[in-house]
């Protein structure tokens, strides 16, 4: 998913309870006071009194250990609920609405799961943002991931809870009417650890990270790591991302901030350091024992000089595993290595992709064509970089550009994009005499702007200082003016 334009009109204070943009300051303050007081024993003036639900009361001894707030969520039956056994009204004033007519067993399961979901909304000490603010950030950045994050919390909470040795004693002390449902859920959450954890790992990584570093997820994930032994993947550093064949090149690249910035499109030192600490890419040779199982069988593209296993992490960011052919010569391998660096970052080059968007219906480059811009643009970028900086960087020694004519580099990349994105990309009508832009003008401009980052401005200035050879006509005219200078005066 690409983040090219985010428009925020109103802040989400609690999921499913969007505050109106025209809400007065007084109304906002009253609402906020109600949220802050929720869960406290002296908040009777703020919360509607709801008769205690009998099944919730039978489960109370266990729910009070499951739920972090002082006041358990209200449980009511509602005709609004259909197609599912319950609906949890999100927020610090969470309420569990049950489908009317549920059996005691079904109601118990719904209340247990609903309480686990509601636990996410309990205010925590040490939280940098409220849970509502975190979910709002996920919603605006990773729209399709919001519901996955919300659903994941309840599952992870029960995963940690039922795998806690103390929970068995709580279940055994429950009334017989609800003990069966609790025992059944405990078996599911202790017997399907990998499946439940796998659903969390299916959430896009960058969406997970919005919530994983803050409460309530932070403490919950720590509990799961301690009790079950599973955890988020460890960051892969720049150094560890490279196989032995690439070690020297990776060190040379890493040792020059300007070179590193060009290859990664990261200009800020802070962003560079974050990338060095958590690279989300690997550079390996065919047959390496470090190739992950998921990337085995990746085919090498002879034109690219490598094969790539790519996974979308969300927000336009990718995880890539580059695999290079064993028989590649040093010069070809080095070129392919440099090209892979640019290939990787073009997927998150939002300026290029946004500029090119006008060439497609809807004004956005379709996801399936992101790879086209990476394919075509990476070759042009490396060629421009070699031409401009070969004398400056030792790492470029022995590497030749695929296209040596600087004037043709942009045209070659542009033609490549048109060829690979046809028929969806804008193609000029040859019979339209009023069309002065030609085919895919946005892509041409986007590539032109991107390539400017790889060109040596100092080299261009030197060229400008040199005068072009003068024609005989010009020489004759200058001689005539010089000879008749005095007459003119």
Structural description of this entry:
The chain has 489 residues and is mainly α. Helix content is 49%, strand content 7%. The protein has 21 helices and 6 strands. It has helices spanning 25-37, 54-66, 104-118, 131-141, 146-162, 167-172, 176-191, 193-201, 205-212, 217-228, 247-254, 257-264, 269-277, 330-346, 350-356, 370-389, 406-421, 441-452, 457-465, 472-483, 485-488; strands at residues 74-77, 86-89, 95-98, 281-285, 307-314, 317-324. The chain has a 3-stranded mixed sheet with strand order 1-3-2, with helices on one face. A hairpin with a 5-residue loop joins strand 2 and strand 3. Helix 14 crosses helix 16 and helix 17 (406-421) packs across helix 18 (441-452). It is elongated.
Short descriptors:
single chain, 489 residues, mainly alpha, 3-stranded mixed beta sheet, 21 helices, 6 strands, elongated
Gyration radius, rounded? 31 Å
Mind describing the biggest β-sheet? Answer: 3 strands, mixed
Count of runs of 4 or more consecutive helical residues: 21
Strand content: 5-15%
Describe the global form: elongated
* Side-by-side strand order of the widest sheet: 1-3-2
Helix-strand makeup class? mainly alpha
Q: What are the segments in which pLDDT stays under 50 over at least 5 consecutive residues?
A: 1-33, 39-45
Helix/strand order, N-terminal first: HHEEEHHHHHHHHHHHEEEHHHHHHHH
What's the β-strand tally?
A: 6
Fraction of residues in helix: 40-55%
Please report the distance between the alpha carbons of the first and last residues: 72 Å
**Mean pLDDT figure:** 87
């Amino acid at each position: 998913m690409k983040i090219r334009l985010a428009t925020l009109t109103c802040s989400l204070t609690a999921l499913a309870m969007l505050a109106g943009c025209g809400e007065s300051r007084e109304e906002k303050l009253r609402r906020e006071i109600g949220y802050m007081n929720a869960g406290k024993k002296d908040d009777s003036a703020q919360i509607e009194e709801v008769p205690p639900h009998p099944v919730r009361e039978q489960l109370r001894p266990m729910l009070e250990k499951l739920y972090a707030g002082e006041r358990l969520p209200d449980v009511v039956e509602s005709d609004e609920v259909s197609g599912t056994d319950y609906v949890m009204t999100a927020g610090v004033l969470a309420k569990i609405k049950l489908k009317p007519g549920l059996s005691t067993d079904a109601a118990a399961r719904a209340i247990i799961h609903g309480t686990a979901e509601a636990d996410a909304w309990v205010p925590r000490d040490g939280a940098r943002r409220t849970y509502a603010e975190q979910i709002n950030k996920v919603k605006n950045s990773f729209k399709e991931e919001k519901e996955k994050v919300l659903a994941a919390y309840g599952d992870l909470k029960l995963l940690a809870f039922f795998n806690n040795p103390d929970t068995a004693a709580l279940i055994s002390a429950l009334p017989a009417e609800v003990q069966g449902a609790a025992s059944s859920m405990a078996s599911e959450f202790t017997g399907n650890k990998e499946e439940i954890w796998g659903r969390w790992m299916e959430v896009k990584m960058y969406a997970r990270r919005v919530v994983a570093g803050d409460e309530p997820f932070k403490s919950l994930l720590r509990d799961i790591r301690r009790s079950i032994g599973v955890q988020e993947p460890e960051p892969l550093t720049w150094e560890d991302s490279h196989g032995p064949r690439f070690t020297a090149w990776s060190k040379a690249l890493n040792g020059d901030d300007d070179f590193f910035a060009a290859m990664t499109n990261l200009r800020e030192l802070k962003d560079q350091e974050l990338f060095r600490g958590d690279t989300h890419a690997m550079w390996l040779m065919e047959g390496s024992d470090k190739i992950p199982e998921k990337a085995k069988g990746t085919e090498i593209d002879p034109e690219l000089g490598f094969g790539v296993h790519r996974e979308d992490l969300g927000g336009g960011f990718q995880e890539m595993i580059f695999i290079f052919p064993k028989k590649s010569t040093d010069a070809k391998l080095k070129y392919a290595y440099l090209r892979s660096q640019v290939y990787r970052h073009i997927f998150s080059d939002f300026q290029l992709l946004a500029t090119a968007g006008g060439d497609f219906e809807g004004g956005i480059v379709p996801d399936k064509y992101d790879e086209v811009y990476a394919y075509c643009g990476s070759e042009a970028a490396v060629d421009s970089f070699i031409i401009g900086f070969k004398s400056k960087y030792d790492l470029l020694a022995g590497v030749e550009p695929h296209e040596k004519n600087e004037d043709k580099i942009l045209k070659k990349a542009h033609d490549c994009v048109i060829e690979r994105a046809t028929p969806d990309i804008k193609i000029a009508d040859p019979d339209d005499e009023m069309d002065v832009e030609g085919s895919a003008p946005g892509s041409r401009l986007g590539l032109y702007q991107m390539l400017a980052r790889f060109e040596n401005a100092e080299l261009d200035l030197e060229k400008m200082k040199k005068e072009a050879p003068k024609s005989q006509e010009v020489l004759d005219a200058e001689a005539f003016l010089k000879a008749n200078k005095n007459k003119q005066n």
